[in-house]
Amino acid sequence: MSFSQLKKTPPKVLVGLFCFLFLILSFSGGYFIGESRAARKLVPAGEVRVTGQGSVSSALEKDIDFKNFWDIWNLSKEKFYKQPVSDKDLYYGALKGLVSGLKDPYSVYFDPEEAKRFMEDLNASFVGIGAQIGIKEEKLTIVAPLEDSPAEKAGLEPGDWIVTIDKTETSGMSVEEAVSKIRGEEGTEVVLQISRKGLEALKEIKIIRQKITVDSVKWKIEEGNIMVISISTFNGDTSSLFNAAVQESLAKNVKGIILDLRSDPGGLLTVAVDVASAWVGYDSVVSEKGKNLENTFKGVTSPRLSGIPTVVLVDGGSASASEIVAGALQDYGFAKLVGETTFGKGSVQDYQDLPDGSALKITIAEWYTPKGRNINKTGIEPDIKIALDVEAYKKNEHDNQKQTARDVLLGTYKPTGATSSAANKK
After folding, report:
1. Which among 275, 263, 277 has a CA at the least distance from the CA of 339?
2. Pick the catalytic residue: 260, 264, 315, 331?
3. Which residue from 367, 407, 303, 335 is spatially nearest to 34, judged by alpha carbons?
4. Which of 13, 82, 263, 277 could form an SS bridge with 299, CB 3.0 to 4.6 Å?
5. Among residues 96, 218, 336, 345, which one is catalytic?
6. Domain locations in the chain as residue ranges
7. 166 is catalytic
8. Which CATH topology does 217-346+366-410 take?
9. CA-CA distances (angstroms) from residue 233 to 111, 321, 420?
10. How far apart are CA 331 and CA 317, in angstroms?
11. Per-residue pLDDT for 368 more than 80?
12. Residue 27 — φ and ψ, nearest 5°?
């Protein structure tokens, strides 16, 4: 069971950035933990166009005959039993297949309708089940359900492997394909069959789609004059809300800060950099490296919180932007990490609009912490590794992970067993 499933929270305000299903991680918005869409210019329409085998043969490997493409095209048009066959369907299907040949779950071609829906999800309200999904160990996996979402209430947990969606097997399915199947009209039902560690049999979970609301930042001063700042996603309103939490922390002269990133699946790179800046100042927060690409993103504000002892709470649902912040604070020694190993989403996607309204989201790089750690697929190890005691929390709402963080800040922490130090030194 995820930590977010156990928390009780006040009503949330609606924001319109993520599709929960997020479509991917971090993975949404002007930055896909990468560069803005405006940062890369497309080749004007018509300058590059495949008109036949002859126009591309010089660029192809010797054992590839592009004539086969047109043969398959024509045979599909002529022989498929349901007629007529749409040229547009074949065309967009071919482009999807082309990108799937990269064998990267985060590189996806969107046809015009899918691209339009994707951007609507980034800029308006949306209907869904309220869970971020990703690919882990080549399986369609729940990264984290959103607090109080239909997904959470139905019992989905981080790490659940989605085996089928309405009886359709997910093997080989991309995140975006899964999203298109899980989405639907408000009030309708989707049935997921999931596999979960500790369960011998597959579990069927029925979820009613609803309008999803998100409150990205909450904060509260708790016992011992310790500020607890919880970030559920890194989206459009996070920076302003986080800044308000920072101002209150400074005004109240808090003794310590607990930054709760548990079950936070990520969001906008710019926001992650902004949040980390409160501790690291103008130093490097994250870098990205790819083919002919190497960028370093530095902090953008003064280090207002650098002098306040800080602990960051993380778990297996902490991904992407959450990992960027946690990794930077751990690298510089501004915070201890408490909890469980993070998700391990360390790749960078670029989003490009195309002239016909379609779009390409493609992995262009991997990102690295300030000390050069690549956490893709491995995640970040906390300094103090401790699992949430679910039974204790359910009985009396005792959060042993938060209590451990509090003990660290107050200097009363005493290890009760084997702990894990930051081990991702690559």
Report:
1. 263
2. 331
3. 367
4. 277
5. 345
6. 217-346+366-410
7. no
8. 2-enoyl-CoA Hydratase; Chain A, domain 1 (3.90.226)
9. 27, 8, 26
10. 20
11. yes
12. -120, 0
Alpha-carbon gap, residue 248 to 242, rounded angstroms: 10
DSSP classification of residue 39 = G
Place of tokens 């039974």: 391
What is 77-139 written as a DSSP string? HHH-SSSSPPHHHHHHHHHHHHHHTT--TT-EEE-HHHHHHHHHHHHS--EE--EEEEEETTE
**DSSP secondary-structure letter at 390?**
H
CA 225 to chain CA mean position, Å: 32
- Vertex 43: Cα angle to 40 and 47 (nearest 5): 175
Our answer to whether residue 302 is catalytic in this structure is no
> 360: which strand partners?
109, 352
User: Of 4, 26, 320, 322, which is the active-site residue?
Assistant: 320
pTM of the model: 0.69
Return d(Cα 104, Cα 293) in angstroms, integer: 18
Q: What angle do CA 69, 110, 346 make, to 5 degrees?
A: 110
Whether 331 is catalytic: yes
Q: Which helix (H) or strand (E) holds 245?
A: helix 238-251
Question: What are the pLDDT digits (tens) for 67-114?
Answer: 899 999 999 999 999 999 999 999 999 999 999 999 998 899 999 988
